[in-house]
From TrEMBL, chain A:
Protein name: Sarcosine oxidase subunit alpha
Domain of life from the UniProt record: Bacteria
Domain GCVT N-terminal: 615-885
Sequence ranges assigned to domain FAD/NAD(P)-binding in this UniProt record: 176-438
Matching InterPro entries: 2Fe-2S-bd_N (IPR042204), FAD/NAD-bd_sf (IPR036188), FAD/NAD-binding_dom (IPR023753), GcvT/YgfZ/DmdA (IPR028896), GcvT/YgfZ_C (IPR029043), GcvT_C (IPR013977), GCVT_N (IPR006222), Sarcosine_oxidase_asu (IPR006277)
UniProt source species: Aminobacter anthyllidis
From TrEMBL, chain B:
GO biological process: tetrahydrofolate metabolic process
Family annotation (InterPro entries): SoxD, SoxD_sf
A Pfam family that the UniProt record links to this protein: SoxD
Protein name listed in UniProt: Sarcosine oxidase subunit delta
Length: 998, 99
């Protein structure tokens, strides 16, 4: 038998022994133990070292509020740091290590910080490690150097580097009533709501339902409270409309009654069940929420209150009653309220000796005196603990008379031997979720605690959450809350269940701190003492928000669950204000730490879908180097062996101008614009006129934004009287669709037009070059493709290799060119037929680089020039602005600023030093490498032009046309490229368009 | 946040794309009044409280919706098809007016 395990009792399975390892030592425990309870049962009292001073720390609580006993759980190579030992269920093979100690927990070299503790006060590091005012380490540089070392010494657990192999998943759930917390109030609420037919979710963060019923030792209607609880859970299970979630922490309360929860599905098992995730993230949308989240017992602030062996009274009671573990053999009690007396009796019953009960109040009730007698304890009213003895574990406490008015009187101090001191400083309702939902807490002078306000819009509280600490009343509130949440009328009379023993007075004495010599901790996890809080006040901090940030009070992983109210009380005293005037900080999600894995769930790695054209595999098989353009993948070049990118595109573009080339243009955005008002609609959205376009012809169109700047361009084909096929640039396809839909839906709902995105329905191949028409003629059936049947911008329908195609004669390359569209499913088939037909002519497939090269040679604009700042006139597209009709952008495009002189205009550049130009480089009149300045504009796109045999570029340059024929320089200090260029027309090649008109 | 699309039913906000202030009135297309166009293109109301907004159900039926949302609580009090109810539900406000 373990030294501290009681011979009987508790809700653990004593027949099942579990082996686990802590700090390299093997221990045993029982099914139902937490790591904390199992280690306590083995006589372990030292759990970790503190954050700043490396003080030895034990376990303070038995739940999610644990600030001290943080451990790192190891799963293979994966480390999960900062887990409260009170929340780790033991299982065979569990391996955990303590934190923030070197070389070992018992002998920690940094514990020397305790000696210098006077100096390591609030803001110590920031004040001390300020750099000199001058020199290489001036200002924050010195701090940044020191920070690395400080972070190593001060801190919590260390995260691992190994990837987490666990699986996580997300669930969405909907319910009428979400009950948070399954203590007596929560169980009553869930049962009442379920019985009225509501869909109920009951979430409990612990491994078993019942909350305090599992350890209160009370009887409900003659049964042990735990039996009553499991009976209610049995009833709930029988309802088809109830979902019971244990090991589930509801950690966030968001708008629209959306709550976030994390279910720890696999942490308590040796190996996860087949197909089960480690954690499951729940997004729960609840019509109504019952908050039955209970309350936390508060520590008292006194010197040495962090020594291992000091524990919350309710936690000690829970260890005894739920886990069959005694936290000590000789236990002293320090309290400012009645609740600790119950704990004293429970611990005495479990076999401990209660050596003394020190109560801060001058007198206590007869009920308390009776309980003290029952516990066999000496009762010292008007007494306080003013110090603790012992090194790594408690050996004794120092008691002295105390009164709230005059504090400690040291004259009659006495020492009492004890290996455990249980403390109760009153209770703070767990109002975190209500606070997240926007509720402003109200201070109760009676309970000395912040209470939730009246029920909020989407939630209703019950039990200790409301400050209702009697179990009978909590159950009654739970029933009422469950009815109300389910939309049922309240009952006129309720019969309270019979609960034994009778409730004690819940109101504590308004004492938070016992002032005496020594370090008295407010925030255990961040090592914030009462003196730190007072120092912050002396240094001028008055706002509770600043206090929090300056001292880091309440900012550790426990988020101040136990330290918040004592910290506020000390600040309030220093300010000479009542607590409610100092106010409290608002709680924010998460209520307790949440694994990032669960938040991400299956959303990791590359989350973008890949968009592939129908001919994608052909490109790969034929040597294409693919290039990602937004979500799309497009061939960049079809490089031969040993060929550089430049060599490849120069060859491809050259061959196209020489004979013919073919390029995949399936990625162009395509929108079917159909309906009786389609032509009118296009007239309004394009700057030029489309209503005059005959059926069977295409036209190049330009769209402006409402502010008059250029938005997008493309060709639109009139397939029928009421049937147009619009093409957009690849990058803007989605934006154009949304833009058109907005106008149709919101601005012109009277127009009878329907829009359909058909980008993915069509495969497109553009074939261009002097021999393109011959190639097409050799493989197309069902139509002629000569100049008469298929003039420039004409459209014909025919077949290629048995597949129906639509061919439009238009040109981006500047060559005689045709876009051949087929159904996406026929894309590769048609493409291969075209490739085959092109072979005798020496046609080459070409990629984006060659496409770009030919468009630069032609001076066609793309997204690089349509950059959201250019007007149509800047791009020399003023001829496309119709004067006959208003269109989107027409009212704003003539604004002063958009027609001012000196705007950046599209020009061509020729490199005069025969070296490459690159996009982004600036254009200046004269180069001054030491002091680059005076930009006239910048290069938007550059290439080597096989047609001109020169390095050329398109640029946006102030003055534009006026500078044609003039010299300038590129200035590109980042890439150290400077050199002369000639400014020319952007139409480098075949300005009259003879080649494409044929 | 849920938006109850009149066509698709209640859906998560992630399915919707915000399309801006619903209080704007597009001037007569033939008008070149710079004041009116400037107000339409650039002025946005940013009230603390009820706000007329246009949302598109981009991940659903793609309809544009005239939504009245409380910017302080995210509570949505009205959702209608913008096509049928272009006029904001709680009265159109003048551009530039204080909320």
């Amino acid at each position: 038998m373990s030294p501290r395990r009681t011979p009987s009792g508790g809700r653990i399975d004593r027949l099942r022994t579990i082996r686990f390892i802590f700090d390299g030592t093997a221990y045993t425990g029982h099914q139902g133990d937490t790591l904390a309870s199992a280690l306590l049962a083995n006589g372990v009292s030292l759990f970790g070292r503190s954050f700043k001073y490396h003080r030895p720390r034990g376990v303070l609580t038995a739940g999610v509020d644990e600030p001290n006993a943080l451990v790192t759980v190891l799963r293979g190579e994966v480390r999960e740091p900062n887990i409260p030992a009170t929340m780790v269920e033991i299982h065979d093979g569990l391996t955990a290590v303590s934190q923030n100690r070197f070389p070992s927990l018992a002998y920690d070299v940094s514990a020397i910080n305790q000696l210098g503790g006077k100096f390591i006060s609030a803001g110590f590091y920031y004040k001390t490690f300020m750099g000199p005012l001058i020199g290489p380490l001036k200002g924050t540089r010195f701090w940044m150097l020191c920070e690395k070392i400080i972070r190593r010494a001060a801190g919590l657990g260390r995260a691992g580097h190994a990837p987490d192999p666990s699986r996580y998943e997300r669930m969405n759930a909907f319910c009428d009533v979400l009950v948070v917390g399954s203590g007596p109030a929560g169980l009553a609420a869930a049962l009442e709501a379920a019985q009225s037919g509501a869909r109920v979710i009951l979430a409990e963060l612990d491994p078993c339902f019942g909350g305090s019923a599992n350890w209160s030792g009370e009887k409900i209607d003659g049964e042990p409270a735990a039996t009553w609880a499991s009976d209610v859970v049995g009833e709930l299970k029988a309802h088809g409309n109830v979902r019971l979630l244990k090991r589930t922490t509801v950690w966030g309360y968001y708008d629209g009654n959306t709550l976030a929860a994390i279910e720890r599905v696999g942490d308590h098992k040796d190996a996860p069940a087949r197909g089960a995730p480690r954690h499951r993230h729940w997004t729960i949308r609840a019509k109504s929420v019952v908050l039955a989240t209970g309350a936390f017992e508060r520590p008292l602030v006194f010197p040495g209150n962090d020594r291992p062996g000091v524990m919350m009274a309710s936690a000690a009671m829970r260890y005894a009653n739920q886990y069959g573990v005694l936290p000590g053999e000789k236990i002293a009690v320090l309290a400012n309220n009645d609740s600790a007396y119950r704990a004293a009796v429970a611990l005495a019953k479990a076999g401990a000796r209660i050596v003394a009960i020190a109560d801060l109040r001058p007198d206590v009730s007869a009920a308390c005196r009776k309980l003290a007698t029952e516990a066999g304890a000496e009762l010292l009213t008007g007494h306080a603990v003013i110090g603790t003895e012992g090194g790594k574990k408690l050996s004794g406490v120092k008691l002295a008379p105390f009164s709230a008015a005059s504090g400690v009187s040291k004259g009659n101090a006495r020492d009492i031997g004890a290996d455990c001191l249980v403390v109760s400083g009153g209770w703070s309702p767990t109002i975190h979720l209500a606070s997240q939902a926007g509720a402003r807490p109200l201070w109760s002078d009676d309970l000395q605690a912040f209470l939730p306000p009246e029920a909020g819009k989407g939630w209703i509280g019950a039990g200790a959450f409301n400050g209702t600490f009697s179990t009978a009343e909590a159950i009654s509130e739970g029933f009422a809350a469950g009815r109300k949440a389910a939309g049922q009328p309240a009952l006129e009379t309720t019969t309270l269940p019979d609960v034994e023993p009778a409730p004690l007075d819940p109101n504590p004495a308004p004492v938070f701190e016992i002032k005496a010599k020594g370090k008295a901790f407010v925030d255990f996890q961040h090592d914030v003492t009462a003196d730190d809080v007072r120092l912050a006040h002396l240094e001028g901090f008055v706002s509770v928000e600043h206090l929090k940030r300056y001292t880091t009070l309440g900012m550790a992983t426990d988020q101040g669950k136990g330290s918040n109210v004592p910290g506020l009380a000390i600040m309030a005293e220093a300010l000479g204000k009542p607590i409610p005037e100092v106010g409290t900080t608002r709680f924010r999600p998460p209520y307790a730490p949440v694994s990032v894995g669960a938040l991400a769930a299956e959303r990791f790695g590359d989350l973008k879908p890949d968009r592939l054209t129908p001919m994608h595999d052909w490109h790969l098989e034929n040597g294409a180097t693919m290039y990602s353009a937004g979500l799309w993948f497009r061939p960049m070049i079809y490089g031969g062996p040993g060929e550089t990118i430049e060599q490849a595109y120069v060859r491809e573009a050259g061959a196209t101008r020489e004979t013919a080339g073919i390029v995949d243009v399936s990625t162009l955005g395509k929108i079917a614009v159909q309906g009786p008002d389609a032509a009118e609609f296009l007239d309004r959205v394009y700057s030029n006129v489309f209503s005059t376009l005959p059926v069977g012809k295409a036209r190049y169109g330009l769209m402006l934004r409402e502010d008059g700047l250029v938005f997008d361009d493309g060709t639109t084909w009139r397939l029928g009287e009421h049937d147009f096929l619009m093409t957009t640039t690849t990058a803007n396809a989605g934006k154009v669709m949304q833009h058109l839909e907005y106008f149709l839906d919101v601005v012109w709902p009277d127009l009878k037009v329907h829009l359909t995105s058909v980008t993915d329905q069509w495969a497109g191949a553009a074939i261009g070059g002097p021999r393109a028409r011959e190639i097409l003629a050799s493989c197309v059936t069902g139509t002629r493709v000569d100049n008469e049947a298929l003039p420039f911008m004409g459209i014909v329908h025919g077949e290629i290799a048995g597949a129906p195609v639509m061919i439009c004669r238009l040109s981006f390359s500047g060559e005689m060119a045709f876009e051949v569209y087929s159904g996406a499913g026929h894309g590769t088939h048609v493409w291969e037929a075209l490739i085959e037909a092109g072979k005798p002519f020496g046609m080459v497939p070409y990629g984006l680089e060659a496409l770009g090269t030919m468009r630069i040679e032609k001076g066609h604009v793309t997204g690089a020039e349509i950059d959201g700042r250019t007007s149509a006139r800047d791009l020399h597209l003023g001829w496309m602005l119709s004067k006959k009709k208003p269109f989107i952008g027409s009212a704003m495009m003539d604004r002063e600023g958009l027609s001012a002189s000196g705007r950046l205009e599209l020009v061509g550049l020729i490199s005069l030093d025969n070296r490459p130009l690159s996009g982004g480089a600036h254009i200046v009149e004269e180069v001054d490498t030491a002091n680059p300045h005076g930009s006239l504009g910048h290069i938007t796109a550059a290439c080597f032009s096989p047609a001109l045999g020169k390095y050329i570029a398109l640029a946006l340059v102030s003055g534009g046309k006026a500078r044609h024929g003039k010299r300038a320089h590129v200035s590109d200090p980042l890439r150290n490229r400077f050199g002369p260029v000639e400014i020319v027309s952007h139409h480098f090649f075949d300005p009259e368009g003879k080649r494409m008109h044929g | 946040m849920l938006i109850t699309c009149p066509y698709c039913g209640p859906r998560d906000v992630s399915e919707f794309a915000y399309q801006g202030d619903g209080n704007r009135t597009r001037p007569d297309p033939a008008s070149t009044d710079p004041e009116a166009w400037n107000a339409y293109v650039y002025d946005r109301l940013n009230p603390a409280g009820l706000h007329n907004e246009i949302w598109q159900h981009a991940g659903g039926c793609r309809a544009h919706l005239a939504v009245v949302r409380d910017t302080l609580t995210h509570e949505i009090s009205s959702v209608r098809f913008a096509r049928e109810h272009g006029a904001p539900a709680h009265g159109r406000r003048k551009p530039g007016a204080k909320a």
